[in-house]
Write a structure and sequence with these properties.
It contains eleven helices and 14 strands. The protein is an alpha+beta fold. The protein has two domains: 46 residues, Uridine Diphospho-n-acetylenolpyruvylglucosamine Reductase, domain 2; 206 residues, Uridine Diphospho-n-acetylenolpyruvylglucosamine Reductase, domain 3 (2-Layer Sandwich). The strands form four sheets. The protein has a five-stranded antiparallel sheet. A four-stranded antiparallel sheet has the order 11-12-13-14, with helices on both faces. A three-stranded parallel sheet has the order 1-3-2, covered by helices on one side.
């Protein structure tokens, strides 16, 4: 681990100022990706700005027809939240199966989506539920937030403060997990709302994406049978020691059908 300056911010404004003034400042949320990268000397920031002490970034509340979750809310808190379980049970279930107990007790919603790991679970929920990402500068629609592998629409000094999840009519998330890390080799989140059906796929490609052919089929008939003739193309999908691109393409269909059946 290289030397760095550590700061524990007391407010969002202070955190933004500190990271903006640093030569190469990094924000620390749960630290699930950043801390291992520091230990392995894969990252060499000049300053670390810890968001853990900012109370306004934590908490869960129902706001009209949406559930608003603070960016520093931990996975375990989302999984055990009565508000989330009642309004969007699929989101609570997703959070309950992220990583292992250590990750669920330290990892945060904001840290996960800001890091945008291609195999993370939360991006699928954000995209399928058509969530709005609220930062210290603006509001970003889900369709505009995830740009590429470990890349988002966030600008320098921009901090995610909360995520607003519209409450769907029905939704479910199913994933084929890596048996060691529990990351999604392929995960599919399906959500049906008044404005249509959205299907988001994580783990399969370099970045989370919507499966619009499945969305079109499900808009006509919301059943697993409706997507029997929809095949996910393997071109552009991830391929590694865990699964080929062709196998991941196959899993997209399998996980989608399971999610649709679970959603009812």
């Amino acid at each position: 681990m290289y030397d760095f300056h550590y700061h524990k911010a007391k407010s969002v404004a202070e955190a933004a100022s500190l990271v903006g003034k640093a030569a190469d400042g990094k924000l620390v949320a749960g630290g699930m990706t950043l801390i291992p990268a520091l230990k392995l000397r894969l990252s060499k920031p000049s300053d670390l700005v810890d968001l853990g002490g900012i109370a306004e970034l934590k908490g869960i509340k129902k706001d009209g027809n949406a559930v608003v979750i603070g960016s520093m809310t931990r996975h375990i808190e989302v999984a055990e939240s009565a508000e989330v379980k009642q309004a969007i049970p699929a989101l609570a279930q997703l959070a309950a199966h992220i990583g292992d107990p250590a990750v669920r007790n330290r990892g945060t919603l904001g840290g996960s989506i800001s890091n945008n790991d291609p195999a993370a679970d939360y991006p699928a929920a954000v995209l399928a539920l058509n969530a709005t990402i609220v930062t210290n500068k603006r509001k970003i629609p889900a369709d505009q937030f995830f740009k590429g592998m470990f890349e988002t629409a966030l600008e320098a000094g921009e901090i995610v403060t909360s995520v607003s999840f519209p409450i769907p009519d029905k939704a479910a998330y199913m994933k084929f997990p890596n048996p060691a890390s529990r990351y999604a080799i392929v995960g599919v989140f399906v959500a049906k709302a008044k404005d249509g059906v959205r299907v988001a796929v994580t783990g399969a490609g370099p970045v989370v994406f919507r499966q619009k052919d499945m969305e079109a089929a499900l808009a006509k008939t919301f059943s697993a049978d409706a997507i029997k003739g929809v095949a996910q193309k393997s071109s552009g999908l991830n391929a590694d020691i865990h699964a080929s691109a062709e196998y991941r393409a196959h899993l997209v269909g399998v996980m989608a059908k399971r999610a649709i059946q679970a959603a009812g």
